[in-house]
From TrEMBL:
Keywords per UniProt: Cell membrane, Membrane, Transmembrane, Transmembrane helix
InterPro entries listed in its UniProt record: ABC_transp_permease, LivM-like
PANTHER family found in the cross-reference section: HIGH-AFFINITY BRANCHED-CHAIN AMINO ACID TRANSPORT PROTEIN BRAE, HIGH-AFFINITY BRANCHED-CHAIN AMINO ACID TRANSPORT SYSTEM PERMEASE
Primary localization: membrane
Official protein name in the record: Branched-chain amino acid ABC transporter permease
Keyword Transport attributed: no
Transmembrane segments: 21-42, 62-83, 95-115, 127-144, 180-201, 207-228, 240-257, 263-284, 289-308, 320-339, 351-370, 412-430, 464-484, 504-531
Topology in the lipid bilayer: Multi-pass membrane protein
Cellular localization per UniProt: Cell membrane
Amino acid sequence: MTTKTTTTPARGLIPLPERTARLLTAAGALATAATTGLAWTWSSDFPGDLTYYFSPAGLQLVTLIGGLLTLLFATASLGIRGLQWLTPAGRNAPTLLAALATFAATWFTLIAIAVHLNGLINLEPGGAVAAVTSLLTLAGALALPPDQAADQPPTGPWQRFTATLAASPLRRRTRELPSWAEILIIAAAFAAGLLAFTYGIDTDDGAPFVGYLIFMVLALPALNRAGLIARLTALTHTHRGVALGAAFIAAACFPFTQDTDQYTIIGANILIFATVALGLNVVVGLAGLLDLGYVAFLGVGAYAAALVSGSPESALGFHFPFWAALLTGAAASLVFGVLIGAPTLRLRGDYLAIVTLGFGEIFRIAMLNLNGTTGPDVTNGAMGIPNIPNLEIFGFNFGEPHDILGIPVATYGNYYLLMILVTAFVVLVFRRAAASRIGRAWIAIREDETAAIAMGINSFRLRLLAFALGASLAGLAGTVHAHVVTTATPEQFQFAGPQPPNSAFLLAAVILGGMGTLSGPLVGAALLFLIPAKLDFLQDYQLLLFGIALVLLMRFRPEGLIPDRRKQLEFHETGQLDVPDQRLPDADATLGATQAKA
């Protein structure tokens, strides 16, 4: 007797035939992209001026990109020749996420127009058409079934929705690309990243940036579910040197896209913040030491540079050249790192965290009291050391605009390019340290200090070395920070506050980006500096939204945005010592296995 089992085909949230859903999604995405050529409002008072025909502007560009991205994913899932490379993993999940990103950005824009201009009457027919087409696109995407059939078909609406968004394993490539093609793909990816970052930082504060942020929060997971980010990650691992070079070249191009210092100073501060976060990553990410007073080392470097850089308010009255001031700031932080670390690094866990927190506050209070009244007159107390002169290296004055390669670069663009070089040096130090025997010993101590000591590792000496290295890197960044802001005050170096850099934001940048990785703290620092700077209009609600975002991140991605392999295995238990690559077998391999069985 034979028992037949019937499998119920998976279906989407809306009951439509699969091909009909794909066609509806593709047609809706194309129509949504076309509506950006129409006027969405009659008034130019809304930021971005969405009153023109056949000239998308402002958030219309976001809708245009979203519509085209959804169209590409939808047509690739239809099996059109030449587009299969767009979806090396899932097909329906990225289509749904892209449609959701387009819908969210479009409807947010239209609602913002109605709120800003006091009424829906201010919408032009183009805006109404965009609302309808984006809704139809989302409806078609919601009708798509999951990419993978589950053992137990989802029953409820929410279960079917989450099943459609589930990740799919990466399929093997049918053929390998030549090296020059892979390098071109890496260069194109970093160029696209530069364009996305430049658009975001140039976007007006308020509704335009919020709309951009909403779109990016949904569009990046769409690229991830499609498998494109995994493919790019594999290429960057194959060509590490090329990828790093392309990243720094793309970053160095940013000041050449700016006419003023309005956003270049944000870029320079992001690089300073990222460099300090990378130094903290040595302490927290590699060695596993919880340091809650790390911003004090940034302050030590800043104050040391301020005292020897020729400020008229300096108690020392020295004017060192930049290279000497740079070494002075790094050396001062290194000395403080050793002096603080030597008696405290025998502590572990929470006790070490409390001691480092105390050191951070002691530094800030000491800088306040060295004012000539409650202590020696060294730092001018709460007034700090102002009027730090601009840097001048080989006759190149960083405080004046210059033409570089025929392109005008404003004042803070000069400091931005300088920080590119400093960041490149810190990245080199981090890479070499992490890949060395010392770096592997740090990781061993982080994972299990008792086992590391049993294997002959000198835990105290290596922890002190990590503390000292992290402190010196922070001092290096602090030297440039003092010249960028032209002053050094105690209030700049707190444990927590609404604006970075402070110890809480630095630690959050490392955890958000991914502890122990190279690119993780850089990405985390960029996000944590850029987003508060662009959402300044929220005022007192900034920290509330920041806390909610961190809670959600720790709930759904505790390993960080760019985690390493160990963290992925730690937070996503598999029951194995390691996890092999979960990829779909290619056709040739499947055929060979079938013939072998036969």
